[in-house]
Design goal:
- 84% of the residues lie in helices and 0% in strands.
- It is an all-alpha fold.
- Helix 1 packs parallel to helix 3, helix 2 runs antiparallel to helix 3 and helix 4 runs antiparallel to helix 5.
- It starts with a helix and ends with a helix.
Amino acid sequence: MTPASVLLVALGGAVGALLRFGLSRLGSERTRPWITVGVNIAGSLIAGLAASAIDDPGIRLAVLTGFCGGFTTFSTASTDAAKALRRRERVRAVALVAVTALVSVAFAWLGIAAGEVLWS
C-alpha cells in the first residue's frame, strides 16, 4: 500500500459515494429502493467492465476499490459471482449470490430490529 494507491482509492470512493448520495435523493421513500437496485446493477456493470478492461493497477484501484466500493458494495459481490460463472463454477456462483442476498437482507433486518429496540 503506497500513498498514491491510498489517494486513488479515496478519490474514487469519494466520487462513488457522492454519486450514490445524489441519486438516492432523487426518489421518494417508495421509489428509493428501486434507485438502490439501479445503483447496484450499474455498479455491477461498471465493476465487470473495469475488471475486464482496465490493466493499469492504479486505475483499477480507483475504479474498482474506490468508485465501485463507494458507489455500491454489491458490485464486488456480483463481479465475484460472474467470474465464478465464467470459470464454470456454477455452485460457487449460486452460493455467492445466495449468501450475499440472504445474509445481507437478514443482517439489514437485524439492524433495523436492533435499532428500533435500542433507539425507540
